[in-house]
Amino acid sequence: AKLLITIISLFFFYRDGDHLARQIRGVLEKILGARVHDYLDAAGQTVKAVLISLVLCALAQGILAGLGYWVAGVKAPVFAAAVTTLAALIPFAVPVVWGSIVVWMFATGQTIAAIGLLLWCVGVVSWIDNLIRPLVISNQTRIPFLLVMFGVLGGLGAFGLVGLFVGPVILAVLLSIWREWLSERPVAGSAERQD
Q: How far does the chain reach from its first CA to its final CA, in angstroms?
């Protein structure tokens, strides 16, 4: 039911999205002035960066997991890596894929290979996401790496899956406001000193 509602909503957003975006920009411009364009641009760049980071993280996790599958002797490691890559597009789904492979290896008596694969996946595959995503978003949006890391992790913690997008967007808009405020502050201070 949610998927159907999402597909129907996407149809109308794609069809009427430009008109709706112009209306929202117009209303926000009346409320916040011309500065709203900088905020909306920051939000748009951040959403794009999050989507790019999602794909790059999925590829990295798939490649690293595939390498682990190959070393551990998993049959069809390329297929398992492809499944892992697709699962990585859904946050928190990757451990289900490599976890089931590790369980299967334990069940078939491949204990040493299963322990090695488990350590590799827990120590490397699962954590590469926390490194690549903030780096990509930071490079795309000119937001410091540490702030992006807190935005991504805080967004996931506060809002769940939606927080993956909401956290960095809120952070980008707040940083844009902060930078604007800092750039206006010295001008006001120098005007007071001249009086």
A: 65
